[in-house]
Amino acid sequence: MIRSRSFRAALSPLLLTAAVAAQEVPHAFVGATLVPIDGPPITNGTLLVRGGRIEAIGAREGVAVPDGATVIDATGKTIVPGLVDSHSHIGAVAGADGSGPIQPEVRALDSIDPRDPGIQKAQAGGITTANVMPGSGHLLSGQTIYLKLRDGRTVDDLTIKNADGSLAWGIKMANGTNPQREPPFAGTRGKAAALVRAQFLRAREHQRKVADAKGDPEKMPERSLGLEALVEVLERKRVVHHHTHRQDDILTVLRLREEFGFRCVLHHVSEGALVANEIAAAGVPCSVIVIDSPGGKLEARNLSLETGAVLDRAGVLVGLHTDDGITDSRLFLRSAALAVRAGMDRTKALEALTIANARMLDLQDRIGTLTVGKDADFVVLSGDPLSVHTQVLQTWVEGAKVFDLADPKDRLMAMGGYGASNGQAMSMCCFAAQGGQ
Amino acid sequence: MFPSLFALAAASALLVPQGDATQVVVVRGDKVFTMAGAPITDGAVLVKAGKIEKVAPAAELTVPPGAQVLRAAVVMPGLIDAHSTVGLSGLLNIPHDQDQLERSAAMQPELRAIDAFNPRDELVGWLRGLGVTTAHTGHAPGALVSGQTCVVKLRGRTVDTDVVVPFAMVACTLGDSGRAGAGKSPGTRAKSVAMLRELLQRTREYVAKRSKDAAAPVDLGLDAMAKVLAGDVPLLVTAHRSNDILSALRVAQEFSIRVVLDGAAESYLVLPEIRAAKVPVLPHPTMARTTGEMENGTMELPRLLLDAQVPFALQSGFEGYVPKTRVVLFEAGVAVGHGLPADAALRALTIDAATLLGVDARLGSLEAGKDADLAMFDGDPLEYTTHCTGVVIDGVPFVGTPR
Lengths: 437, 403
What we know:
The structure holds two protein chains of two kinds. By secondary structure, chain A is α/β, with parallel strands linked by helices. Chain A has eleven helices and 18 strands. In chain A, the strands form three sheets. In chain A, strands 1, 2, 3, 4, 5, 6, 16, 17 and 18 form a nine-stranded mixed sheet that branches. By secondary structure, chain B is an alpha/beta fold. Chain B has eleven helices and 16 strands. Chain B has helices at residues 2-12, 122-128, 159-162, 189-212, 220-229, 242-255, 271-276, 301-307, 328-337, 342-349, 351-357, and strands at residues 16-17, 24-32, 40-48, 51-57, 68-77, 79-84, 132-138, 145-153, 163-165, 170-173, 235-239, 259-263, 281-283, 374-377, 388-393, 396-399. In chain B, strands 1-16-15-14-5-2-3-4 form an eight-stranded mixed sheet, with no helix packed on it. In chain B, strands 6, 7, 8, 9, 10, 11, 12 and 13 form an eight-stranded mixed sheet that branches.
């Protein structure tokens, strides 16, 4: 049960510099029930983190705590990986405006307010990574941004960099009724699909022109920020996060994906159970929302608590999401518990909060499990992750504590109260257009 | 295969009635929360003709021949949602099924909930499937005086057969969400209170006139408000800001009317005043979104009300979008997760709600002579992963797929 990357332990003294950051001091969480997700729970275990990474995890007697380590008695507590929310609207995120239905040049990055209380509340819910997206009122509402919920001053403190230095992000699309509006928006499903196909054909043409230029600046097509983003989609470098509810709309996404070959995650999938076999056959992951009752809009009238269970049994990779503010980031664990209530396997439900979502964001090698070498993102819980009585006690991102229920300022964010929501942007896409007041 | 699977999924959302109220039913529970004394381990409830005949340890209760026997890990009184708009604000959320708010005038106390409640809306069945057997429902917040509310069993027949209290309260909204909109009154907080006071003053004059002259013309709105003025029916005041809450208490004192505070997101700022006024509170749903006037809301509110000894019951409230209805059982669970003791949560879902609504003679506890409304669970009712395995309403079992 002891997993340790010995070469890292051996090398780490050499890597230490004179200026040892606080998080360079090893932290050992001792005595907790560890739920690593990549293996069975470990009772009375030790989690050792250093330098923002997980250095060792295992049964208490098998993990040596280094001299000088800060030892935290976590007896009676449960530690799970930092939760990964594959669909969130925290941080005052905004994307495309009302000028048109397809705006791939617009970046969520350029809208994020790192001081939005929604981010602190997500930390209070144990969320350490979120795919923050613009809303679903457009066929394509812009580029999403994957954020680590570090305590940051600027959005750059929250972004995630790929190995090549590029930012980790996707693109947001939607079909069904949310993006239906007056022209130039689509008024029908057929028109919506036609607009999307035409746009991808333009991107393909742009891609061909770039390839034909063979690097010759004279032959390069005129630059287009939007088409360049879509070429990244065509080249499978950028994942499409696709809002879709009704069974026929889900199949439309699969059809477009087949035609243009992009990588895709289906989001919400309210009627996913009706086309579970088709989704499984396509090998497309689903990020599922858990809502307390069906309805509220026509395409969610058959929304079912069983969706996660049915898709999982069909062989689909299933994640869960908050869609914050549709559901509250502080209650993300509850979504998994309700999925279990509706028949989802308990282990799969916990994966749906962590590693499954990490896979959908291409971050499975860095986050989503308590695995040696991965980022030290974890949550200290007072008990069973799926119990109503359990509280998030602490949230840690890359070895730094970002939430502590014992801190009155953090507690205000966890519980709510006077000033807890000052300036908070609450996104509920298409609320007014669909019957809200 | 899939269409049939789909039909099955839709149907299984509902618990299906079995038999009728004439039958004899015994509901046996590993634990029976009677809400009238300590829980009974291995208890049983004998039901005859829609009423509870006996509640006792199973060993002390003989099952009559021919009785239908139901079993569950936990048996408790059917849950009471102390404030909802279910049956008026339908599942589809299209104009066709939204009858909770009439915007043609700021004050319409004559609008009766019984003329709008749809007992067959799918959300009624959804709530029943999660243990809710009675709801206080009716006109929604959003107008200064939006109309009446009623208390109704979620049995799904007709409002006339299922209603418990046809006219329960008059719904009133102070603060931002009570404004009438551009160019119309009320447009400010002070104007809202002035209009409400004028309405009550007119009601006084109307009552005096009608008492002297029985032939004086009937005004349906003032007739309804006369019940409020007489103390027969409380004014249900939705108010979130602490200043709006105090406005409600001021009006209650001026006209000696009964007020029930609804929502009350900032009530924790003025608990001594609320307690002194002896006004009960229906705190906003624990999970309600903290936007606008509710920005200072807290998931600890039920616990804070309990600590301050302010009477309260839990509610699902009103939602304009998704989810179209909340589930009071789930709201209670999250309240418990945020400090409300479990026994207080169970009381708030049953006997305390019945008392607050004035229906405790019939509902809210398992006692001989009360309506046979029960909820059954396969574990701790407040846990996320527990299922409701069925309900009994007026002695009729509803069983099906556990939810």
